[in-house]
Amino acid sequence: xxxxxxxxxxxxxxxPDVGNQLARYRRALExxxxxxxxxxxxxxxxxxxxxxxxxxxxxxxxxxxxxxxxKDILFLARRREDALVRxxxxxxxxxxxxxxxxxxxIPPYPTGDWxxxxxxxxxxxxxxxxxxxxxxxxxxxxxPPYGVxxxxxxxxxxxxxxxxxLVLSELNGLGYTAAELAWLSGExxxxxxxxxxxMDQFIAMLAQKDHALxxxxxxxxxxxxGLPQFQTELVPLPQGYNLIVADTHVRHQNxxxxxxxxxxxGRIGVALLQRRYPxxxxxxxxxxxxxxxxxxLLPEAMTWxxxxxxxxxxxxxxxxxxxxxxxxxxVRQRCRHIVTENQRVRQSVAALKAGDxxxxxxxxxxxHASVSVDYGxxxxxxxxxxxxxxxxxxxxGARMTGAGWGGCVISLARRGCESAFIDHVRPGYHDATGIxxxxxxxxxxxxxxxxxxxxxA
Length: 457
Ligand code: GLA
Known about the structure:
With 457 residues, the protein is of the alpha+beta class. It has helices spanning 3-12, 18-36, 116-128, 156-171, 178-189, 199-206, 255-273, 291-294, 304-309, 314-317, 331-353, 357-374, 380-391, 418-433; strands spanning 40-53, 63-79, 84-89, 98-101, 136-141, 211-216, 231-236, 241-247, 395-401, 408-414, 438-442, 449-456.
């Protein structure tokens, strides 16, 4: 590793971190050589993300405004002649090695196994490819403090899927654009069992330093290769302000099933609304309609018996199963969140472009109330963290980010109040919960890509 590396990493990371990052890359390269033998290796990286605003809107074709973290996962890869994918992780105890062959039908590991995040894109790319794909020897490095915090709602798992897809696509010369790979990675992630949208994958691929990314999750048509195209716009983050990330360290066990229930509730809402608005396909289609006219068409809550009576068969709306003992589906308030959240994203983009940071902070606060009360995706610890953050002078807005039920709070804060934030929020949160939170400033980072090809490990 030489001066080129230093320069290259300087383009990706903040200047004070470059030395430590160099050491991190060096350790990973040494481990790669020890595992797979000396020879050329290509190094890619994929960042985690925060979402500034636009929560749970993407899977209803709405709007989102995420930014990349400067924390990332490294993917060191060497193409193989056969179809085998061998995956090692630097943190081998938590993530034991996995090995499988690329094919159009790859049997999954048990639910929750980390290897499925590599199998998903491998299967999808194999299905689309004209010729059999080459496998890879892969080393994944996402260790703290530079890796993407795991289970914290900042998309470490999407980063895995995006990275595996990126590596396989590049080393097989498949020629997908960044946006196409983002979309394909979103599809690939369904392999692991969640029914998420495309936000995490798009920000991982398309992020630019110091910018958020406005993404319209409704495709505006197909490209020549049949893949959907999306409208995106980079929005500069306000100067003189920081986004402070505070990790509650709460990891909800049932995020996957709660998440899928929310997806189902939205789809029930769409099915009901189609009776009045036959052209409606997603809640996004309600844009421009008066919510006061829509709301009475949606019941507050529906039991399984209510669904039956209304002629709605859930298994036709979503391909995951729910226990029939599940709590009633709270259709009206879930839909209200998504509809109003889409409006807040558009208003946020306008506020940021106009330099109205105070307005944006207020919208963040409203978004939190909505996702917490209407969408029911918060938890006690998130509420405690949000309340503490808002008590700090210089904080303009604070909200949970990501899927919810735990994970992180982001706060928009005037630059210079980071220490006051930490001094107030850390002990306050510990007093209330017994948990020490992690708090760091998000330097909105660069999207995924190749760092260096054919380095000799
Ligand atoms: C998860 C999903 C995303 C999005 C968010 C909530 O991160 O993967 O697609 O739905 O939750 O905004």
